[in-house]
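User: Can you write out an input/output pair for a complex, sequences first and structure second?

Assistant: Here is one pair. Inputs:
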Amino acid sequence: MNKNFDILRKKMVEEQLINRNIKDKRVLDAFLKIPRHDFVPDDVKKFAYDDSPLPIGFGQTISQPYMVAAMTELLDLKEDHILLEIGTGSGYQAAIASQLCKFVYTIERISELAEFARQNLDNLGISNVEIIVGDGSLGYADKAPYDRILYTAAAPFVPDVIFKQLKNNGIIIVPEGERHSQMLKKYIKKNSNIESCLYFGCIFVPLKGEHGFEY
Ligand code: SAM
């Protein structure tokens, strides 16, 4: 079975990532290495390398592989970077990022999912990820400032409290917009200025909490 998964993973990288212009070799190598099937519940394992998000319980999803890759490439993670991820889910995105930077703090509001992610990461021996249970819409001030901040849930906007937790020249990647439709957006902090650019349309599950969606 694992051999089949290895073949499917290689195919996923070629057809869903390389063919859609994901170019960063470090990112592609991380996708070849991290087994997505180890981050989904048993009943959907057979779909683990499909070109789609998958349910992980509690009404939440593991994102489509291409979306994870596109966001990871835009983050431009370096080996000495500290990343804050908002929305741990299954832990898959954190596992990918853990291969590309020094340390990942990832915050999840649903404690059962945080535990699921912890198990998934432990099973693979990944030790440079810390999972926090809490409201990620406020960031995680305890370990700030961060080189990079990644939202993996749809945010209505990025509040000042998050920009304050970003280092100078730091990058935020966020699906930002309406409850049912967002644009993938990059913010770059340049001294006291914040620059931004838009990429493409996307649909994520909503960020909840103080600076999230109410419904
Ligand atoms: N990155 C995840 C992965 O690799 O599986 C997928 C994340 S899923 C699309 C979005 C996650 O954000 C859900 O697990 C959801 O519970 C979480 N979430 C939503 N609002 C949150 C908040 N205010 N703080 C922390 N996590 C939140």
